[in-house]
Amino acid sequence: MSVDRRALLTQIIMSIQKMTDANSERLCNASRFKSLEKGEILVHQNCEDHFEYFLLNGKCRNLIRDAQGREVTLGFTKGFGIVPPNIARTREGNSLVEIEMLAASDIAIIDSNKLTELMVGDEEIRDWGNAVLRQELQRMVAREWSLAVLSAQEKLEWFRSDFPDGEATFPHIHIASYLGITPVTLSRVRAPSRP
C-alpha cells in the first residue's frame, strides 16, 4: 500500500510543478501516511498544527466555528490535491481552521519545518513550495472576490467552473456555506428556470 501512496504523492507533487525525481523522492521520504474515516477531524481549530497535508484520495473541507458553534466552510480539497498550506491556515503554530474528512481518505503528512528546511536547501523545492503558495493565494482571492461581488447564481456558476463535479461530490449545505448563501438560496438557483 505504501508504494501506491508514494506514487500518488509523487503525482501530486509533479502536478504543481515538475521537479527532478531526486527532489520528488526527498519530499516523499520526508512524508508519513495516514488513513482517516469519513467524519474524522484531521486538524482541530485552535489546536497546535505544524504539518502540511496532501490528500491522496478522498475529500475534506476546511471550516471555522464561531463561539456559538455555527460553522462556515472555507474550502474543499478532493483527492488528489493539497490541503491549503500551513502558513495560510495557522497563526503562531495554532490552526485557525478545522479540517473535516468528508469521505474515507488517505493523506501524506510532512512536517512544516522539514519542508522549510528542504526549501531553504534546494532552489527547485523552494520554487515548488512557492508555486503551492501562489495557487492557494489565487484560490483565496478568487473566493473573496466572488463573495463580495457576485449574485447567488453567479457564485454557483463560479463554483461549478472551479469544481466541475462539486455538486455531486460535496454536501450542498457545505457548498452553500462556502458560497456565502443559504441552503434555500442554493436550492433555488440550482433549480432549472421555468418559462
Write a compact overview of the structure shown:
The chain is of the alpha+beta class. The chain has a domain at 2-117: Jelly Rolls (Sandwich), CATH 2.60.120.10.
Structure description:
- By secondary structure, the chain is α+β, with helices and mostly antiparallel strands.
- It has a domain at 2-117: Jelly Rolls (Sandwich).
- It is built from nine helices and ten strands.
- The strands form three sheets. Strands 1-10-3-6 form a four-stranded antiparallel β-sheet.
- A hairpin with a 5-residue loop joins β4 (59-65) and β5 (71-78).
- α1 crosses α2 (21-29).
- The longest helix has 27 residues, at 123-149.
- The termini are far apart.
- 29% of the residues are buried.
- The mean pLDDT is 93.
Q: Which structural traits does this protein have?
A:
10 strands, 195 residues, alpha+beta, four-stranded antiparallel β-sheet
Q: Work out the strand percent.
A: 15-25%
- In the CATH scheme, the class of the domain at 2-117 would be Mainly Beta
Number of strand elements: 10
Secondary-structure content class: alpha+beta
Terminus-to-terminus distance: 54 Å
Return the CATH architecture of the domain at 2-117. Sandwich
Number of helices: 9
* Order of strands in the sheet with most strands: 1-10-3-6
Query: CATH superfamily assignment of the domain at 2-117?
Result: Jelly Rolls
CATH third-level topology of the domain at 2-117? Jelly Rolls
Q: What is the mean predicted local confidence, pLDDT?
A: 93
